[in-house]
Amino acid sequence: MKIIQLFGISAFASLAFLGSCKPKGxxxxxxxxxxxxxxxxxxxxxxxxxxxxxxxxGQVNVYGLPSGRLLKVLPVFSVNPENGxxxxxxxxxxxxxxxxxxxxxxxxxxxxxxxxxxxxGRWLFANANNTxxxxxxxxxxxxxxxxxxxxxxxxxxxxxFITENTEYVVAGTRFSVPTDDQNGDVPINSFKENFKGVxxxxxxxxxxxxxxIRFQLQxxxxxxxxxxxxxxxxxxxxFFSCYNSEQANSLLEVNASQNDKxxxxxxxxxxxxxxxxxxxGRKVKTKYAHNTWNEETHTATSExxxxxxxxxxxxxxxxCYFMPTPKSPHGSxxxxxxxxxxxxxxxxxxxxxxxxxxxxxxxxxxxxxxxxGGIPIxxxxxxxxxxxxxxxxxxxxxxxxxxxxAYTSMFVxxxxxxxxxxxxxxxxxxxxxYSVGHLMIAGGDTSKPFGKYLVAYNxxxxxxxxxxxxxxxxxxxxxxxxxxxxxxxLDFPTFGEPHYAQAAPAELFTKNQLKFFDIAKNKxxxxxxxxxxxxxxxQGNKVHVYMTSIRSHFAPDNIEGIKVGDEVYFHVTNLxxxxxxxxxxxxxxxxxxxxxxxxxxxxxxxxxxxxxGMYPMYCTDFCSALHQEMQxxxxxxxxxxxxxxxxxxNNKADNAQSPVKTAVTK
Length: 666
Ligand code: K7E
Ligand code: CUA
Description:
By secondary structure, this protein is mainly beta. Helix content is 8%, strand content 43%. The chain has ten helices and 47 strands. Strands 6-7-8-9-17-18-13-12-11-10 form a ten-stranded mixed β-sheet, with helices on one face. It has a seven-stranded mixed β-sheet with strand order 41-40-43-44-38-45-46, with no helix packed on it. Strand 1 (48-53) and strand 2 form a beta hairpin. The protein starts with a helix and ends with a strand. Dinuclear copper ion binds at residues 549, 552, 583, 619, 621-623, 627, 630.
């Protein structure tokens, strides 16, 4: 099914099922010392972090390499009942958009922040395809701390790719659509006339990482697929693969596969900045959400923005150039030197490699073969460094090892192919099991790849793992690329559907790790910094419970006088100041999820009891030997009853030290 989606053309679809394309058996593919190379002894750490996109689960998964052990699932675009992301009052604003609250998205690509073209370990950027957004995760806490929505866009696939000093994160629209200030209520077949392909340049603050959309480029209506920034000599440029230069709006598997060549669009973003400075942009009225997490208040806020500046690349010359690239190119990858740009045409029988210096020369000497949507098309031969001949079938993505080699994933022929960037000679090929999509080398899209490991993220698992019903996990496969020949070391299952991934040595991230939040710095409006301050406050039908948790009780743990019709907010502060001691919180009948509160943090669960009765609450995370005792009761009375609102901890009749307290009513 997935093959057919990607390669609807029947010839290719059938190729995928041909015996000749199926790789040889595992026995021959795994090298003898593989176990030793991936074994991480109990108590030892992995060498690298591997951040893997979750695809249609909307999350990011963190693995250790070389073991392939899953360390954590980081919620980004989808709600996560495991820790209350998207359910707690504090995190709900993270998922606000111009369409309202959205609990899900489709997450494909990741990029780690860079300084001087090298991974700096600070932030991880993630895209959402369906409702176009870009997220930033802070790798000090492994939390999603910012999400920005993208106006004038649809299907944010070509994203989030960053420049070598993280000046920009870019996001190219997959679906061209009428821009937000135009009437979108037009016939679909007016595509050519009304639709535009917009690319967003999101600026990133050097110190704080804070994002804002600096400008957008309005380009002809094509489908932007992937991109990568220039680096080194090509810093200042961006390269976007485009398909559907046919501008089809239906049955794209046929109608967008007509042209022998589509394009890689080269964008001179420094030039675009000049035009922006000169005031050449058009202000477009729109609406997009910008959501930020505040680490001091432990709360997200969502702001609706109303305007974005758009530069029209057909009008403002010399921002964009098209490099013809066969055939429906998917990956657009730039080698570590910044000189070579590799286009992977899904339907092409070769891999074209463009040269950045030749491209500059071709622009200078005007070696154009025509125009497309007002953008000059450079002559294919004029920008071409060369073609890799007979690389395999269905090239998708290319990464680099920093030693002059490129590695391309071949979806249809299920293999990874290693080739020499300069000579374009194929050096090695190894099977994948099966139908590899993205592949990743640690640091493989930076100026300084770490090499050593390559991971293939495969679309089809078939017989690789114990069967789990109709849906099997996707598989990741780890290869040792330190020698001349690639060696398959390990299979590990993945969650959702991984697309792109990132990896780097662990020290880059462990050095910044935060172990717990300093409670003295907690500025949450409902924080409770000690049990003595815990209280219950009624404001009309809203009841605020200022609650604390510490091993192994809540304060208060008995509450009476809640009435049907009340909205109860449990603001739970975890008083612990130690690493790895979260407490959980849940109450019978709560229609959202648990809270999982980190040490020093405050989180809020909203609870609306529907009928009178006795409602137990408890800690969900096994926090101590007396975790099971970490529980309490809330008594709910009928609407209009006169049971006073009281709260207590240890309210034994003979214990005058902890009397039952009456709630404050405001
Ligand atoms: Cu090739 Cu969405 Cu990057 Cu998947 S995309 S494979
Ligand atoms: Cu706190 Cu279990």
